[in-house]
UniProtKB/TrEMBL annotation:
Protein name according to UniProt: Tubulin-specific chaperone A
Zinc among keywords: no
GO cellular component: cytosol; microtubule
Family annotation (Pfam families): TBCA
Subcellular location, record wording: Cytoplasm, Cytoskeleton
Subunit structure: Supercomplex made of cofactors A to E. Cofactors A and D function by capturing and stabilizing tubulin in a quasi-native conformation. Cofactor E binds to the cofactor D-tubulin complex; interaction with cofactor C then causes the release of tubulin polypeptides that are committed to the native state.
Coiled coil: 7-41, 66-96
Keywords of this entry: Chaperone, Coiled coil, Cytoplasm, Cytoskeleton, Microtubule
Family note: Belongs to the TBCA family.
Organism expressing this protein natively: Citrus clementina
Any GO molecular function: beta-tubulin binding
Any GO BP: tubulin complex assembly
Main location, first listed in the record: cytoplasm
């Protein structure tokens, strides 16, 4: 049974994972710039290899994060639908709708 409390938790989960995804994307940009800079300056091959490993690890986190976000979005949608069928309204419902729209927009922009 869906409750407003569960809806709030699922909404917060989506927001947190979305924030995490943005953080990983920024980290990849930073690490890629750092790697390119090291290559330009002719850094030690060992240091360069270590930096490339850091970059690869950061890149691996993005698909995992997206998968978790898709799962959290599906759960949020299901809970919201159940509460809407019960004709529930309130700030939590609007917040959930807004979060769903934000996540879907994020997926559309990254797929295009």
């Amino acid at each position: 049974m869906a409750t407003v409390r569960n809806l709030k938790k699922k909404t917060s989960t989506c927001k947190r994972i979305m924030k995490e995804l943005h953080s990983y994307e920024k980290e990849v940009e930073r690490e890629a710039a750092k790697t390119a800079d090291m290559k330009e300056k002719g850094a030690d091959p060992y240091d360069l290899k270590q930096q490339e490993n850091v970059l690869a690890e950061s890149r691996m986190m993005i698909p995992d994060c997206r998968k978790r976000l898709e799962s959290a979005l599906a759960e949020l949608n299901a809970t919201l639908t159940e509460l809407e069928e019960e004709n529930q309204e309130g700030q939590e419902i609007e917040d959930a709708r807004s979060t769903i729209a934000d996540v879907e927009k994020l997926f559309q922009t990254t797929e295009a």
